[in-house]
Amino acid sequence: MKVVVLTGAGISAESGLATFRDADGLWQGHHVDDVATPEAFQRDPATVHRFYDDRRRELRAVAPNPAHIALARLEQILGDDLLVVTQNVDDLHERAGSRRIVHMHGELLSALCASCQGRFAWDDDLGDVPACPGCGNSTLRPDVVWFGEMPYDLDLIERALIQADLFVAVGTSGAVYPAAGFVRMAAVAGARTLELNLDSSETSHLFDEARQGPASKLVPEWVADVQAPSH
Ligand code: APR
């Protein structure tokens, strides 16, 4: 059985990382337009670097929760038949043990050089305007996909969706495309679809089944069911 699991900020909420839309449009006190757009970075790179330095510091202080751990366990069962597509830029899936992950919105612990396109693991502070370890230019930026930029690996994701037997969305509001359109793409290609979310989302009605509750409860229960089908 080929499974694609899409995760959003809600899977990391119980680890202590704020979601985007539960904080009435503010992300840690910042408007998205001031810290998560190419224009903001052009205008004031130091503020953007400081914002992501804070996010990296915060990430170091939290740990994966039972939902991340259950998905890592599922990968041990399904192997290459499972793909986790995450909108999150945290590394909690990796730290839980998942290996087959696509970060469609990039990764907090990676830096990208706007000049040489080099990527560098980055877990300490970028400082104000750091020099690229590759080409030496002061053009390093957080390797995250900002509003108005293209998400990563969409062709790979769409190929997986078309081949999926089951599509599961965990902890995502369905507010942002293209991720919000994945359920329809999977369903049209014949997959069963399941939503696991704290509340109903903007796309709940598009799923064959939508369960409400915390991810740390719903995901382990669902994985246990996949492991030993009760029916
Ligand atoms: N368990 C399960 N779901 C939860 C939990 C929880 N403990 N807590 C919150 N949720 C749900 C909320 O009900 C909401 O539907 O997680 C969802 C979080 O939605 P958003 O904050 O919109 O996060 P997300 O869907 O990942 O946002 C998508 O938008 O801001 C951009 O690029 C950013 O990747 C992000 C994208």
How many DSSP E strands? 11
Give the rounded overall mean pLDDT: 92
How many independent structural domains? 2
CATH superfamily of the largest domain: TPP-binding domain
**CATH class placement of the largest domain:** Alpha Beta
Alpha-carbon Rg, integer: 18 Å
Tell me the number of helical segments per DSSP (H or I, 4 or more residues long).
9
What overall geometry do the principal axes of the alpha carbons give? globular
Low-confidence stretches: none
The percent range for strand residues is 15-25%
> How does CATH name the architecture of the largest domain?
3-Layer(aba) Sandwich
Q: Which small-molecule ligands are present, each listed once?
A: adenosine-5-diphosphoribose
Quaternary state of the chains: single chain
Please name the CATH topology of the largest domain: Rossmann fold
How do the strands of the widest beta sheet line up side by side? 5-4-1-9-10-11
Function: NAD-dependent lysine deacetylase and desuccinylase that specifically removes acetyl and succinyl groups on target proteins. Modulates the activities of several proteins which are inactive in their acylated form.
Pfam families: SIR2
Enzyme class: transferase
Catalytic activity: N(6)-succinyl-L-lysyl-[protein] + NAD(+) + H2O = 2''-O-succinyl-ADP-D-ribose + nicotinamide + L-lysyl-[protein]; N(6)-acetyl-L-lysyl-[protein] + NAD(+) + H2O = 2''-O-acetyl-ADP-D-ribose + nicotinamide + L-lysyl-[protein]
